[in-house]
Amino acid sequence: MSKIVDKSYFSPNVVRLEIEAPLIAKSRRAGHFVIVKVGEKGERIPLTIADSNLEKGTITLVVQKMGVSSTKLCSLNIGDEVTDLVGPLGKATHIENFGTVVCAGGGVGVAPLLPIVTALKKAGNRVITVLAARTKELVILEEQMRAFSDEVIVMTDDGSYGRQGLVTTGVESVINREKVDLCVTIGPAVMMKFVSQLTKKYEVPTVASLNTIMVDGTGMCGACRISVGGQTKFVCVDGPEFDAHQVDFDEMIMRLGAYRDEEQVAKK
Amino acid sequence: MEEKGRNEAWRETLRKSMNPKERTAIECVHMNELSGEYRCHNSEEVNQGLTLQQAMQEAKRCLDCANPQCVTGCPVSINIPQFIKHIELGEVLEAAKTLKETSALPAVCGRVCPQEKQCEARCIHLKMNKPAVAIGHLERFAADYERESGQMSVPEIAQPNGIKIAAVGSGPAGLSFAGDMAKLGYDVTVFEALHEIGGVLKYGIPEFRLPNHIVDVEIENLAKMGVKFIKNCIVGKTISFDDLKEDGFRAMFVASGAGLPNFMNIKGENLIGVMSSNEYLTRVNLMGAASDDTDTPVLKGKHVAVIGGGNTAMDSVRTARRLGAERAMIVYRRSEEEMPARLEEVKHAKEEGIDFLTLHNPVEYRGDEKGRVTAMLLQKMELGEPDASGRRKPVEIKGAQEWIDVDEVIVSVGVSPNPLVPSSVDGLEVSSKGTILVSDENMQSSIPTIFAGGDIVRGGATVILAMGDGRKAAAAMHAKILSGEI
Ligand SMILES: Cc1cc2nc3c(=O)[nH]c(=O)nc-3n(C[C@H](O)[C@H](O)[C@H](O)COP(=O)(O)OP(=O)(O)OC[C@H]3O[C@@H](n4cnc5c(N)ncnc54)[C@H](O)[C@@H]3O)c2cc1C
Ligand SMILES: Cc1cc2nc3c(=O)[nH]c(=O)nc-3n(C[C@H](O)[C@H](O)[C@H](O)COP(=O)(O)OP(=O)(O)OC[C@H]3O[C@@H](n4cnc5c(N)ncnc54)[C@H](O)[C@@H]3O)c2cc1C
Ligand code: SF4
Ligand code: SF4
Ligand code: FES
Questions:
Q1: Cβ-proximal residues to B321 (8 Å cutoff; 6+ apart), any chain
Q2: Taking 90 as the threshold, does the pLDDT of residue B153 lie above it?
Q3: Which of A38, A264, B106, B357 could form a disulfide with B143 if both were Cys (CB 3.0 to 4.6 A apart)?
């Protein structure tokens, strides 16, 4: 059991949780994730470690309410225990001073993008963050991103805030204006697919952090498998980050829908 | 050891109380089981166990051979005639004690050992064209009897020696190692990556074959003996081997199993509804996905194909049937004779209405517009020359292919060793297949303080072999610690 020692809201649907996990706090690096299970009958869900505090022996998670399991986690309060917490999992992000990096996040991907933006900035990169949402109310973590970005471009589908347009419009405007050495993208699979197509056209190396369905997170089940360059890879152990230009996003999008019907039922 | 007690007065008297002819004339006992129709709608244990009377009767069949070949067939050399003769006299608790001298998990092995290939394969009865003594059933009986009697013997523990030892993984190898080390007075901690203790016994083998509560009793016993369990802790990730050393662990036993599922790399294998047996069984057994009050979902296909012929395949196909499949089928590229699964599982599967498409091999899957699998293309096979494993090799019959409708496919074509531990320890020697290399006689790896056993050393093997490795490693580690080598 791991105790929640702090909780705050970034927005009504995005919660920051600080949880006791001294061993994980010690061994984790940027890009690592944990698997969390709330309640005896809960589901195991993957969440990126946003930050850690070695002295307090805690890790920070930024959780966006999506369905049943993420909502359960967000409803826990300070002093409550997370039933199961295991990690750090996955391969750490390759962080170095690349030069100029565009970080493109949308929807479910904004939270896990935060630690990467932070680490890239600390490594001396010029970081331009593009945040995308359907409408103004859904823009999250803008302030936190600003703290570690040289510039933040907000894109909304309906133009209610920032610029009007899709995430790709924002990314393209940066590429057209200056030399971009790397693009990092996290978000819904469709979004990453289009970002990847765009940067491929401009030959900007791109890393996508994939949020596939997972069960164990340790390479034991294969639920998280995807095709990269024609080869099957397990996101939990071979990733979660991959060369976006090699990822078969269409297959990934298809696989993400595996339990959609069941999830709809569970929500009711 | 093998002859222990055979010359004792009670054994001799018992032996002479009935002549061998009379003993062999007794009909072999039949396990009481739930009917095929009833059990394929629930997860109740199929085998219901023997009654004391049945067990004592079956025990009479054993001839108490002077040179018991059955013992040589058991990977851990259980003193089989000794425990059976105790049962014949109705001294079941004594029988259980005999079993525990060698086996840490008799209630488990009695249920899941491939007896017909091990102890029972060498029973003298087979030479007389009679069914072997039902050693497995009797083993299970004695272990269950002891547990249910409430008089389970907690083994004697040596004076604590304060030496810290770690086991990595809580499957049968890790558990049996922990038990033996605790008995010797060591301070043992078992680290487990998942949120449940038990390894494959919990997440793999289903309730209808090995109820969880039976495994839990064994785990509770270990806890009573002072073994500590730390769940949700991946050695090599959460803590490193160096951390363990710094924390004062003198030596470690790696029993991390063979966790990585193999796929066949054929067209359509990443369609929705095609998954590994590990995923399927983990969802159902570890996460309880079949019941409505858990959050983890599982697909409940109507036409389910399971690819493979091992125990894992049988467990998956029978699980699919229980989750409501109208047609649940085994697709296996060789013939039934070559199937590696336990005979009893094949028999039970058939009674539950499972279709066996032997000499068939999938070559492609097709899906609908949503990417859900709808059909598989099967290649018909025939048996050719024997291959390296001694089994006749399946070869394709040219042009003989057919499409079959399916809405769920479970791939059960073996596992590879979990690479996590090998890749996180510098200098640990592994084979080309990724198994940890150890010395045969003492299970010690290329790093003197690291021992290993079970599936991480053998690839996919059996519960009894994993358990035997755990015990062997414990004995060897103890000797090396005593001699000051480690
Ligand atoms: C490596 C990794 C790191 C992640 N890090 C974070 C993080 O730091 N913060 C965070 O909030 N989330 C993160 N996620 C996503 C998170 O795991 C999912 O949001 C969560 O599993 C949803 O569970 P649920 O039961 O609440 O929703 P569900 O009921 O499972 O899903 C609700 C809806 O969300 C969609 N959905 C579900 N899972 C995903 C997904 N993985 N990607 C896109 N859409 C999805 C479903 O299609 C469904 O429509 C990460 C995922 C991965 C694989
Ligand atoms: C579905 C199925 C049915 C089977 N049926 C039979 C049968 O009928 N009869 C039979 O004899 N055999 C059967 N087997 C095979 C048998 O279960 C295995 O051979 C046996 O369990 C191997 O034991 P083990 O202790 O080596 O590993 P496992 O039982 O695999 O346990 C390994 C444990 O280590 C944990 N782990 C892995 N890495 C780490 C790490 N880095 N840190 C901490 N923990 C870690 C894993 O999570 C796991 O719990 C079956 C296997 C399966 C999958
Ligand atoms: S442990 Fe297995 S092989 Fe050995 S006697 Fe028991 S059933 Fe037979
Ligand atoms: S070989 Fe058969 S009859 Fe002989 S001791 Fe073993 S079980 Fe008994
Ligand atoms: S989540 Fe099970 S293998 Fe990746």
A1: B40, B328, B352, B353, B354
A2: no
A3: B106
A142, containing H or E segment: helix A142-147
Smallest Cα–Cα separation from B49: which of B116, B138, B120, B117?
A: B138
What is the tally of structural domains in chain A?
2
B420 touching A, CB under 8 A?
yes
Q: Other CB atoms closer than 10 Å to residue B149's CB: what's the count?
A: 11
Q: What is the span of the domain harbouring residue A117?
A: 100-256
Q: Which A positions 57-96 lie with beta carbon below 8 A of chain B?
A: 68-69, 72, 83-89
Q: Tell me the DSSP string of B132-181.
A: PP-HHHHHHHHHHHHHHHT-PPPPP-PPP---EEEEE--SHHHHHHHHHH
In a shared domain, residues A50 and A141 = no
Would you say residue B4 has pLDDT above 70?
Answer: no
Nearest to A219 among B260, B263, B269 (CB): B260
Q: Dump pLDDT digits (tens) for B393-435.
A: 899 999 999 999 999 999 999 999 988 888 889 899 999 999 9
Location of structure tokens 């996990």: A21
- Residues flanking ligand 2, CB < 6 Å: B 112-113, 168-174, 191-194, 199-200, 204-205, 234-236, 255-257, 259, 281, 311-312, 315, 342, 418, 420-421, 454-456, 461-464, 466
Quick one: angle between helices A167-177 and A189-201, nearest 10? 20
Q: Is residue A163, in this structure, part of any structural domain at all?
A: yes
Shared domain check, A168 and A193:
yes
A86, A213, A215, A238, best to mutate for ligand 5 pocket (most atoms within 8 Å of CB):
A215
Torsion of CA B210, B211, B212, B217, to 10 degrees: -90
Same domain for A83 and A211? Answer: no
β-bridge partners, B323: none
Q: Give yes or no: residues A228 and A113 share one domain.
A: yes
A164 and A57 within one domain: no
Regarding whether A106 and A81 lie in a shared domain, the answer is no
Q: Is residue A125 part of a domain?
A: yes
Q: What is the CATH classification number for the domain harbouring A231?
A: 3.40.50.80
Of the listed ranges A88-97, A109-118, B110-119, B203-212, the least confidently predicted one is A109-118
Looking at every residue in chain B, the average pLDDT score rounds to 94
> Do A36 and A112 belong to one domain?
no
Could you say which of A62, A89, A116 is where a domain stops? A89
Pairing of strands A231-234, A225-228: antiparallel
Residues A194 and A142 in one domain: yes
Q: What are phi and psi of A45, to 5 degrees?
A: -120, 145
pLDDT over 90 (residue B450): yes
CATH number at residue A74: 2.40.30.10
Question: What is the model's pTM?
Answer: 0.94
For residue A28, tell me if it sits in a domain: yes
